[in-house]
Amino acid sequence: MKISVVGCGYLGAVHASSLAKLGHDVVGIDIDEAKVALLSAGQPPFYEPGLPELLTETLAAGSLRFSTDMADAREATVHFIAVGTPQQEGSNAADLSFVEAAFEAIVPQLSPGDVVVGKSTVPVGTAERLAAGIEASSARLAWNPEFLREGYAVKDTISPDRLVYGVRPGDEHSVAMLDEVYASVLEQDIPRVITDFATSELVKVAANAFLATKISFINAMAEVAEVTGADVTQLADAIGYDKRIGRRFLNAGLGFGGGCLPKDIRGFMARASELGAGDALSFLGEVDAINLRRRERMVDLCREVLGGTIEGARIAVLGLAFKPDSDDVRDSPALDVAARLAELGAHVRATDPQAIETSRRLRPGLDYVETPAEAAQDADVILVLTEWREYREIDPHTLDSVVSVRAILDGRNCLDPVQWREAGWTYRALGRP
Ligand code: UGA
Questions:
Q1: In whole angstroms, what is the distance from residue 332 CA to residue 300 CA?
Q2: 302 is catalytic
């Protein structure tokens, strides 16, 4: 099929190249010339394992190209809209200006029978509002939310847990077109849910709200563990064996960040309030608050280990990305804690395998170094704030002679306390004795 993908950020770039890999003829369109130039050269403007290889392969095969010209969408029959919906400045609500601009730009390119497919995460009711403009061109609208995780984006696109199509009741044409787009995905017996616009929009935010709630639940247990001497990691293992609960997304620590979970729960609350259902989601305010409290707790723990004073202390920060295998520092708990400590007068030296450049753009004042050993030089305490594999595997003895004080704070419960304590280190973590 000939397919256009409008918006070549994280979601769009992965989606376009994955569809090309699945055998389609794809054009990715973005207004950002620099981004299009990089992608056309096979270089994603962000870190995502496997994506450079996929881009190179599909560009070389001629099944993928990128463009800044919306008219290049004209030949396609299916048009995915994959632009961002960030949190609005000064409000919890989502900023829909990119979605609206993309819909306005695609309409003049449509031919009768084309299907425009929204992938962006939007407030419920958006598809219904945008459908009229599409239908006036005798084209159809469908909503097909995306569930990919950064770090696993290609795999999640090619082998998702499920596909969701939100369509007008009885719109078999759009369903057939989407089935053709995803033919090789559906061959893997991936479940597909066909529903209305509103449900498809809600599925996405409900899933992220559930995941955020699960993380905040275990972090609330960590708060209780901290005042009782219990161990939240063992607690998570024990409740996680119950198949109804499940162990995944029960890792206590610094909490969730990134470009999705925080802004999606806030946008969901804002939209529910507009619709008069604010009470139904008031618990998400608590989920957000528990999550943000973990960052404060990390700063307090650091102060405690430093003997009461952060000012003037030398602090090594290992990890800045919001999670491993990503260079994304949007709303990153790790970068936030590093910046707070610097604001409190500490000499913070921070490192990350991939996120130094992205961190520098957001927090130019921090001192960034390339390796854990450089960060730990003469440090009074080391903080592990993102659980990259290379940090999980550090041998305490390699840092023994580098640091000033042997103290490590595990913000992600990713280190072995026994190993560090046996090596003579003070080991402290969130929710663990
Ligand atoms: C999330 C969802 O998991 C995806 O399904 C969704 O498609 C995506 O948002 C989106 O809306 O686009 P992502 O933001 O890539 O994906 O990251 P997650 O793997 O969900 O992690 C989110 C945050 O939660 C990270 O900061 C991570 O460190 C934290 N986390 C995760 C925990 O603190 N504990 C856990 O047990 C799991």
A1: 18
A2: no
For the question of whether the overall pTM of this predicted structure is more than 0.85, the answer is yes
Answer yes or no: is the C-beta of 208 below 6 A from any ligand 1 atom: yes
Q: Which helix (H) or strand (E) holds 64?
A: strand 64-67
**CA separation (Å) from 158 to 152, 155, 217, 397?**
10, 5, 31, 42
Name the pLDDT band for 407 (thresholds 50, 70, 90). Answer: very high
Ligand 1 atom 16, closest CA: 149
For residue 204 the two structure tokens come to 């996405």
Using the Cα atoms of residue 344, residue 345, residue 346 and residue 350 in order, give the sign of their dihedral: positive
Distance of CA 240 from the midpoint of ligand 1 (Å): 18
Report how far apart, in Å, the C-alpha atoms of 35 and of each of 23, 83, 360 are: 24, 13, 19
Is 99 in contact with 126 (CB distance < 8 Å)? yes
Classified as helix, coil or strand, 140 is strand
306 lines ligand 1 (CB under 6 A): no
The pLDDT tens digits for 193-222 are 999 999 999 999 999 999 999 999 999 999
